[in-house]
Amino acid sequence: MRTNKFIYILLIIFPFIFLAPLTFQYLEVGNDFELYHFAYKKYIFELLKSGHIPLWSPAEGAGYSLIFNPLAQFVYIPSWIFYFFCFFIGDLSKYSFLIYTVSAISIFNVGLFLYLRSFNIDVKIALTTVLITSISLKVTELLRFPNALHAFAWFPWILYGINSVYLNISYKKSFLTIFISILMLLTAGYPYYIFYGFILFVSYFLFIITIKSKEILFFERKFNIISNKYFFLKCFYPSALALIIASPWALKISQLMTITRGRNISDINFSFHGSSNIYDQVGSWIYPPFSIAEGWYYFGAIAVFIIICSIIYVFSFKTLGKANKKLKYITFYFIFLLLLNYQFSNPENSLIFPYLWEKVEFIQNFRFWIRMNIILVPILSLILALSINNFINIFNENNILIKKKINQIILFTFIIIFFSQIYFIYYSNYENLYWETWQLKRIIFAENLLPNFFSFFVKLYKDFIYVIFFFFAFLIIFLFNNNKVFKISKNINYMFILIVFFLSFSELFFLSNVQWSIPYRYYDNGFEKLNLKADYNSPNKDALNDLKSAFLDSRTADEKSGNNKFEGNTYYRNNKKFNINYINHWGNDRHTRLFDNYFYSNGKFKENHNQLIKKKVEYFYGMDKDAKKIFFSKNLYHEDIESFVNDSILSEDQSKFNYELIFYNGDELKINVNISNDGWISFIDTWDSNWKVFINKKETKLMKLFDAYKSVKVESGISEVRFVYMPLNFSFK
User: Fold this and answer.
1) Which DSSP symbol is given to 117?
2) 261, 590 in Cβ contact below 8 A?
3) Cα–Cα distance between 299 and 280 in angstroms, integer?
4) Rounded distance, CA 688 to CA 367, Å?
5) Rounded to two decimals, what is the model's pTM?
6) With the CA atoms of 320, 321, 322 and 326 taken in that order, what torsion angle do they form, in degrees rounded to the nearest 10?
7) What is the dihedral of CA 203, 373, 467, 492, to 10 degrees?
8) Cβ contacts of residue 87 below 8 Å, gap of 6+?
9) Would you say 134 and 142 are in contact if contact means Cβ atoms under 8 Å apart?
């Protein structure tokens, strides 16, 4: 299966060409891209530059594990390649991180191409299919979730590895393909996709061995297909090795999720969040504005039209050739995945989800089950490739009866799609907040960057742009089938493939480029080009000293205004401050339980507490001018923060308590303490079983203040107290 190297180069660079408005800094990806994913990368990179590998983050939720936080993507090998690249260029900016994110599509493209070619699909058809898939709404929708995109990138590689084993291609290559791909999937930092991938790969394995794959799926191949027993074992060995290597990290993540706010909820309603409906199912195919963001797996009008027509065709004829029989059986498998996805994405009405939720504990930690539709993409891509091949065969068919039948199918498909779209436009009251919020911005993009001719068509998006594209699709396929414009020749196949690609490219360019992007920032005097290389609110070049100095500053000060207050969710971003707030559904539950007694989720102080209590709480959390992280108290156990603060103020005064900060880097705190009475030293940083404490270099039991923060018993006199995070201890308590 030799392929021109130029094709692989094209597969790699194409996402950057298509996403030029992003990759050339005209647009900036919004949503979670910056707030979570970029923030972690920047935080880690700046500390790496200062000579420290950060394992714990004091900059979120009063302290949270960084190495075991999947969002940090800490053990993902491409992530570290990216860090080395940034060291080489001298900085990690939002622009370089965008390039890193888009590179995941390149990885996906090569894997999908190899997967399609393993079915002996024509190179040109496989290439066209991959390029269309790579710019589909579902793939580019993941730009806002870089970790998800990097996890998904390995899906087709694993499928290709399974095919390679089955076709008895070089086992060394097959072993490495499956091993590396699964290892990357496990460490990419998106646990959802591990579970979704497991469903896809197991079902695909069973699909292959339960049908006559040799005769139906791989009839063109000349390889000696192995027995099912050896097929299983040869797939199992590399998979097991990858699981063994990744298991310490993966299990730790699983454990961490059980003590994370919003991920340890015993109410099944948590899992209903983001459920799909009929609009998501239909809209994903023919009218994207009526599908929620997680339902956007629209491939473009002509691709969808080709798929629907081909599926109707293969189920309309009793006698089929081998190629169409392959399409028919792949469609059966796709329908199975579609029904399975519907069961999980509609948990309220599912027949199996409530049972699984009760029996499989980790399922309780997930929501947005509609995102499981990601497993449909590589199989849908395979169907598209087979459908294009099907139509090329039809165009070269001389049977008048078949031509007539195809005309009927083409017309029937267009009528159904057209009236469905009209219904969505005029008779449905469904409104998609995400679509209105994000996709509307492409009008601004069109008006300011594109010629008037294209701008005109983009403005039609709200109502008829999808109707127009489907009409073009219908017209093109109808003309080709009836040879009204093109004469039958050896070039008709290439011409059709090119038209399919360029029509898909033209349509999706206005959709996929701007899904979650922020166009030119708007000012009173016009638009201004984004500066994606601008510094981010994170540790500066001297990051370790920044952390040390920040230890003595207010945890929650708003740097712009100078006010000690919370502002929306901005406090969650990883910056040099010792952040104590958290966002909904994310934060160590030990801290959030206490925090919620005094603050609302937006960081505002609750009205049911008086000003005196407020001052005590702000003093405790380091929110006032007398910011503190270290407290000395006579007693450890208190009913509330107020009583602890009173104890601390009195005890520190009576014991003449003082301490000297010797060292701090986020993972380790060393202080010298001088007290005249025995008591408790408390560090207002989240307790974790992987933290240890040493008094005069002797390990001492680390206790919990309010079941949330770190405390240790210290005798009178001068003592060296050392708190250190040691994550090689793999246990949570």
Assistant:
1) H
2) no
3) 14
4) 26
5) 0.87
6) -40
7) -40
8) 48, 49
9) no
Helices (H), 346-399: 353-359, 376-395
Interatomic CA distance for residues 176 and 164, integer angstroms: 11
Distance CA 352, CA 298 (A): 27
- CB within 8 A of 498, min separation 6: which ones? none
- Give me 352's structure tokens: 């199996």
How far is the C-alpha of 55 from the C-alpha of 48, rounded, in Å? 11
Assign 263 to helix, strand or coil.
coil
Structure tokens at 401: 């009866």
What span, in angstroms and rounded, lies between the C-alpha atoms of 504 and 404?
26
Structural tokens at position 661 = 């900060």
Q: According to the model, what pLDDT value does residue 220 have?
A: 62
> In this structure, are residues 428 and 287 in contact, taking their beta carbons and an 8 Å threshold?
no
pLDDT one-digit tens code per residue, 462-492: 557 778 888 889 988 888 888 755 555 557 7
> In this structure, what token pair is assigned to residue 530?
């984004």
d(CA 489, CA 535): 57
- 533 has pLDDT over 50: no
Contact status, residue 276 vs residue 370, Cβ threshold 8 Å: yes
Residue partners of 145: CB distance under 8 A and separation at least 6: 32, 33, 37, 190
d(CA 606, CA 314): 64
Q: Which amino acid is at 258?
A: T
According to DSSP, the residues that pair with 605 across neighbouring strands are 599
User: CA-to-CA distance for 314 and 131, rounded, in angstroms?
Assistant: 25
H-run or E-run covering 729: none
- Give per-residue burial for 586-612: e unless 16+ CB within 10 Å, then b: bbbbbbbebbeebbeeebebeeeeeee
Domain spans in the chain, listed from the N-terminal domain onward? 543-725
Which one-letter DSSP state was computed for residue 523? E
Distances (CA, A) of 386 to 155, 377, 383, 481: 19, 14, 5, 17
- For the segment 499-511, what is each residue's pLDDT rounded down to a tens digit? 999 999 888 876 7
26 neighbors 444 (Cβ within 8 angstroms): no
